[in-house]
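Lay summary. Proteins are chains of building blocks that fold into shapes, and those shapes determine what they do. In this project we predict the shape from the chain. Here is one chain we studied, written as its sequence of building blocks.
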Amino acid sequence: MITGGSGFLGTYVARVLAERGDRVVVFDAAGPVPELAALTARFERQIVYVRGQILDLSSLLRGVQQHRVERIFHAAALYDPPYSLEEPALTFQVNVNGTINVLEVARFLGLQRVVQSSSIAVYA
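And here is the predicted shape, written in a compact code that computers can read:
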């Protein structure tokens, strides 16, 4: 599963995983982004999109269970510095509590691995 998988990084990760033959579950509040859709278009049979909010623990848990996810690449985050300064509480909730939700689902279900991604925005 790729949380935040409809974004720039998530789309590229989905493509790489699909290219090597993996079944990919994208968990995102948005569906596929039209500007990035061409990157994964030829892998539409291998990539499943699940709409959900990273702050909704039950939705995340249900998505992982329904699709028998074994590993999570966690890329769901708010990373736009100007927006984050305007909405610090929401940014904290998504970035910190969303990560806690991913880790709790992994712990509860005994997933094999969680990979936490970062962003160039940490250097801005």
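What the prediction tells us: The two ends are 28 Å apart (CA to CA).
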